[in-house]
Model the fold of this input.
Amino acid sequence: MPVLKHLLWPFKVFTVALHEFGHASVACCTGGRVHSITVDPDEGGLTKFSGGNVYLSLPAGYLSSSFFGALMIFCGFNLLASKVAGVFVGLCMLATLIWAKNWLTRGITVIFIGLIAFLWWLPVNGGVGLRYFILFLGCMSTLYSLWDICEDLVFRKVNESDASQFARLCCRGAIGARVWGAIWFLISLLFLTIAVVAALYTWKDDGKPGN
Done:
């Protein structure tokens, strides 16, 4: 469905930006220096950094986009939590904007920051539109990340990927890239499962009369 593909394209690019932010943020937090983040129209991305802990930075792309997606799904079950998640996502996009080195990356971050701000202040049921937007972003980020792991790392191993670089560094290549891809997939799936179960338990009374 070409129309659906075009409609989902900005959200896929957002997920790629979140993926690259994961690399950058972990590299930065482990003492590295981030040089640039770029996202291309073909839904690919590249983060250039030096230093830091590569054993944490390399898997952080897929795992952080899955984790952040799961966090948004959890928050998407409650209006106040969605607003908190909106602030968090906005700050992530702002950091990505600072590191961005091409216009697509800058554009997609500005658009999503603007959308979050608009839905926050939109006077419809106290900003309920933001709740569904955050929930959709979470589903999109988590599911697209899971699909990407399967497509690029498990079923169709690409020549160069986060998993192939990690495999060369970790255990001296004894564990292959596909195995690491499968492990990352299971971890990402665990994030999603925990988020849904925790949301259903935590917000089970949300939306009922008197709550």
